[in-house]
Design brief:
The protein is built from 17 helices and eight strands.
Length: 494
């Protein structure tokens, strides 16, 4: 009888049989547990799970390796980071610059990836480089694969092929042939610059004269009339020097200008010169000479510039138009001069009436009050009063002298003053009361004139608003939509 049969024989105690069965079952379970694979454990990685398929060295030392991952269990990683890739080139470790998935995120068992690094392998050009690519996977082991590439030659890596070098060669540029300068164009530019410089100089001169007049007026009113009168006398002497004989050129131009001006225009021109404070015969000669000279200045250069660029008839016509413009410009200046002079007299008249009132109240005669204004002031109104005072001293009557004053100035306020002074003299009214009333009226008129100018300013602003500001606004607002509007009008709605 065997040992097992003896153990299971009826004579063996029951507790021994139960213990023996328990040991047999425990041993079988232990053998099964050791032999079966444990749940959750991954199979050991093999070299076939990662494989380097291509190495690109066209931008050496920048190297790009394309590799695939086919895990035995699960799916390939959806993405890689720089920390997941380790590159070993012999005993040197290369730091990866990029690591990414090629194409979309892998959904099959095989994923394609690329790694980029800067090679630092100490090998010569043309020799092979053997390296190892290691891909780390979290909690699932590392994948390794070897790769091999040949370091490219410097000629291929740096210079490229001969065809590429020919494409990169600079094209031959023909040498420019020197052309003769365009005299007409250069002359036009020089004339334009000279005109701008002349306008700038005239503007500076006018601004300086305005500032000087205001300073002298201020000096008169603050009690420093002595230096102001000295300056006024010096300028009066300078103006008197214009009575010197005219130069031959001015005489010839004056004769030419007098022939171009008709008799009726000549009388009107002389009267306008009187209103502008330039009523002497020499001033008339200078003015017509200026008209003729400016006409020739515009005619001859315009003809010289246009003959080479336009037909002869067109050049002559345009040159004559330019000459006519030059001939008319002094008349425009004279009109502005008259208006400016009348404005200055209208502005100074209330203050002059105040001084006349003070002088008459202090016991001076009308002529003495006018003399004080002439001695202390140096403006357009004082010049007219000086002429009137000279007429009175020459024996003319006060009525005639006042009427001549109104005729020379053509200022409404002065004409009103002359009318009331003549009426007060004929009726025997008090001169001081008349002057006080006139001063109040002149101030009221000056205020009304200023208000009128302020009301006209809003209307005058319409011109730059319509022709300068509105077009710019239309361009900015409607400019981007012009193409769409044109397509809609030509092609209809899209």
């Amino acid at each position: 009888m065997s040992r097992g049969q003896r153990a299971l024989a009826p004579g063996v105690p029951a507790w021994q049989r139960a213990a023996l069965l328990w040991w047999l079952v425990a041993g079988a379970m232990l053998v099964l547990a050791v032999a079966a694979p444990r749940a959750g454990a991954a199979a050991e990685p093999t070299a076939a799970e990662v494989a380097v398929t291509a190495i690109r060295t066209d931008q050496y030392p920048r190297v790009t390796a394309r590799f695939t991952i086919e895990p035995a269990v699960g799916v390939p990683p959806p993405h890689l980071t720089l920390a997941d890739v380790v590159l070993l080139e012999g005993a040197t470790r290369a730091e990866p610059l990029e690591a990414y998935v090629v194409g979309r995120e892998p959904t099959a068992r095989v994923g394609t990836y690329e790694a980029v690094w800067i090679s630092t392998a100490p090998v010569a050009a043309g020799e092979s480089v053997v390296g190892k690519l290691v891909v780390a996977r979290h909690n699932r082991g590392d994948l390794e694969a070897e790769y091999r590439y040949t370091r490219p030659l410097p000629r291929l890596a740096e210079g490229g092929s001969s065809a590429a070098r020919q494409e990169m060669a600079l094209p031959i540029v023909p040498r420019a042939i020197a052309q003769p300068p365009d005299v007409v164009y250069l002359g036009s530019v020089a004339g334009t610059l000279a005109g701008i410089a002349a306008l700038a100089g005239m503007t500076a001169h006018l601004w300086r004269s305005r500032v000087r007049d205001k300073q002298e007026r201020l000096e008169i009113w603050v009690g420093q009339s002595g230096p102001a009168r000295a300056k006024a006398n010096a300028r009066a002497k300078a103006r008197g020097s214009r009575g010197a004989p005219l130069s031959p050129l001015m005489l010839q131009l004056g004769k030419l200008g007098a022939k171009l001006v008709s008799t009726s225009q000549s009388s009107k021109l002389k009267r306008s010169l009187v209103h502008a404070g330039k009523g002497s015969p020499q001033e008339y000669q200078r003015f017509v000479a200026t008209k003729a000279g400016l006409g020739l200045v515009c005619l001859i250069p315009g003809l010289w510039l246009l003959l080479g660029r336009a037909p002869v008839g067109t050049a002559l016509l345009l040159s004559l138009c330019l000459g006519a413009v030059g001939f008319i410009l002094p008349g425009i200046w004279l009109g502005r001069k008259i208006k400016s002079r009348q404005y200055k007299m209208r502005k100074a008249l209330p203050d002059a009436l105040d001084l006349m009132t003070i002088g008459v109240s202090a016991g001076l005669a009308f002529d003495g009050a006018i003399s004080e204004i002439v001695n202390k002031w140096d403006n357009e109104l004082s010049h007219e009063f000086a002429i009137m005072l000279g007429e009175l001293r020459m024996g003319a009557g006060r009525r005639d002298a006042l009427l001549n004053l109104a005729d020379r100035t053509q200022v409404d306020e002065i004409q009103t003053m002359v009318g009331q002074l003549i009426q007060s003299e004929e009726l025997g009214m008090s001169l001081s009361d008349t002057l006080v009333t006139l001063a109040d009226q002149m101030r009221l008129r000056r205020r009304q004139h200023a208000e009128e100018l302020a009301q006209k300013a809003a209307v005058k602003m319409l011109i730059p608003l319509v022709f300068l500001i509105f077009p710019a606004l239309f361009i900015v607002i409607l400019g981007p939509s012009i193409s769409d509007m044109y397509k809609f009008m030509t092609q209809g709605p899209a």
